[in-house]
Amino acid sequence: MKIKKWIPNTLTILRLVVTPLVIYLGIKEAIAPLIILAIFIALTDFLDGKLARLWHVESNLGAKLDTIADKTLAIGLLIILVVDNHMFFYILILETIIALFNIYVFLKQKVIESLLIGKIKTWVIFITIILGLFNILFPNLKLFVNLLVILTIIMQFISLFNYIGAYNKRKNQKKKLN
């Protein structure tokens, strides 16, 4: 069953490979195909982690790839959405800050940590992005989408503060051991 080991990482790599196509569709304003592809790709994010845990094939490589794929896809889609709704700019900035903080933590502590709040935040972002794309086709969703943007921003701040807290906790534990 060696193939089971590769399926979750293959799904994650698929997200990375498809991200340029997602951005291209956004630039070409092919919103309907973009929505379909974004939903499919978001589902692979759920599926890769679920399969890795189910089959007990979690790996550091998979965790790194998953984080990179999530951030790359989200940031690419957010750049597309900022043009239509400037409120997405705040999500884009916060997601970039979170990505940079994750890189900093990895470089300092060699830790890739996925907190539950981070996973929830990622799903909230993907739902907000997909509804933001729908809003391009159906502008009457704007108020609802803007409320989701605000919820997403709140989730991002909570997630960022939790990651900062986890980083500081590990740093303090390391000091106590030395």
Sequence-ordered SSE layout with sheet pairings:
Blueprint: H1 2-27, H2 31-54, H3 60-84, H4 88-109, H5 116-137, H6 142-177
Helix pairs in contact: 1-2, 1-3, 2-5, 3-4, 3-5, 4-6, 5-6
Provide a short characterization of the protein structure.
With 178 residues, the protein is an all-alpha fold. It has six helices and no strands.
Characterization of this structure:
This protein is mainly alpha-helical and 178 residues long. The protein has a single domain (2-172), classed as Four Helix Bundle (Hemerythrin (Met), subunit A). 87% of the residues lie in helices and 0% in strands. It contains six helices and no strands. The chain has helices at residues 2-27, 31-54, 60-84, 88-109, 116-137, 142-177. It starts with a helix and ends with a helix. The model has no long low-confidence stretch (mean pLDDT 91).
List keywords for this structure.
Four Helix Bundle (Hemerythrin (Met), subunit A), 6 helices, mainly alpha
Residue fraction in strands: under 5%
Tally of DSSP β-strands:
0
Class by alpha and beta content: mainly alpha
**CATH class designation:** Mainly Alpha
- Average pLDDT metric: 91
Radius of gyration: 17 Å
